[in-house]
Amino acid sequence: MAKFTQDELLEVLEPLLRAHSPSGDEAEVDAVILDQLGGDLDVRRYPGGQLIVRIPGRRQGDGVLLAAHKDEIGMIVKRIEEDGKVRVAPLGGTYPWKYGEGPVEMLVEGGTVEGVLSVGSVHVSPETKHVHEAKKEKPLDWPMVYVDTKLGRDELLKRGVRPGVRVVVHRSRKSPLVWNGYVGAFGLDDKGGVAILVLLARALHEEPPELTTYLAFTSAEEVGAAGGLLALEEVRAGALIAVEIGPVEEEYGLENDHRPIVWYKDSLHTYDKSLSDRLVKVGEEAGIEVQTAVYASAGTDASAARKVGRIGRVACLSFPTQNTHGFEVSNIEGMLNTAALLREFLKRGEV
Q: What is the DSSP letter of 72?
């Protein structure tokens, strides 16, 4: 059983990162995923935007569902002002200081409208209230920023910009930075998880797992985490494992290194202890060190499904990540070890 490699991972990851996929407008990344999966796998598209791969197991019984969400954090047009300023609201839990002033794209039918997420010139007095507040008084927030397109309101409407249009970081800012064993990019949450599932799909197609395995590329997780629930409506699974980023901060006692993170609790619910313990044990037996975490402010497709009582056996395995919901930085070996641990877990078929 050949190991997953850095080159293999990055080859899959980069086109995913460059594809636009704000919550609810994910067709571009869907096309990338389907191309990467190839034509030999049993992959289907379901209502709600889920893409699910089914890989038959060697044994009968309930399957295992692995879920990684394909949507990215973004923005949505709230209104267009008379002077052409485009006001936006967040899609998911992020803040304008996570992006900074810089180019963005508004996704309209048939293309994009470019602009710059803007605050204003720093050389001002208290008369320019919103800039002065950002300089001196309070953190930058959404009412203090706008998208400057250099187009008037009528022209923007003519081009298809209106409330509801999604806004994303410009593609020119989406190529990953790879350095010193790390990868940095907007959208590693959760395109890193998507890349891991693509690698697993290819490997499991060549060497089938013990139990039937479903790999779900879920939609709109960042705005409500309903993807796991929707996927469970379509498959017969006795366990759901989210494949995610693992936020690293000092308060959690975690490091951004080679060790995957097993979640035991987040802000939505607890995870099934026996299933989480099993992931830790498989890691130990396979020589893959792991970290464990209890999060105060996070949630996944798996914990959301457990919160509403849809499934009892849930877990989350993640790769360590800093700067979450901004320009995220992940340890590459941590990502590869996450994939390797899941592969070993599925090989053993002991859920």
A: B
Dihedral class, residue 69 (left if φ above 0, else alpha if ψ from -120 to 50, else beta): beta
Distance CA(339)–CA(203), nearest Å, equals: 10
C-alpha 119/C-alpha 232 separation (Å) is 43
Give the up-direction half-sphere exposure of residue 319: CA atoms within 13 A in the CB hemisphere: 30
For the full predicted model, state whether its pTM sits above 0.70: yes
Q: Three-state DSSP class for 330? A: strand
Q: What is the DSSP string of 229-285?
A: HHHHTTS-EEEEEEEEEEE--GGGT--SSS--EEEEE-SS-BPPHHHHHHHHHHHHH
Q: Do residues 162 and 153 lie in contact, with contact meaning Cβ atoms separated by under 8 Å? A: no
Domains located in the chain, CATH noted: 6-72+187-348 (3.40.630.10), 74-171 (2.40.30.40)
Helix pair 6-18, 27-37: axis angle to 10 deg: 150
Structure tokens at 127: 């008369």
Q: How far apart are CA 300 and CA 43, in angstroms?
A: 23
Report the phi/psi class of residue 24: left, alpha or beta, with left for phi > 0 and alpha for psi in -120 to 50: left
pLDDT tens by residue, 265-290: 999 999 999 999 999 999 999 999 99
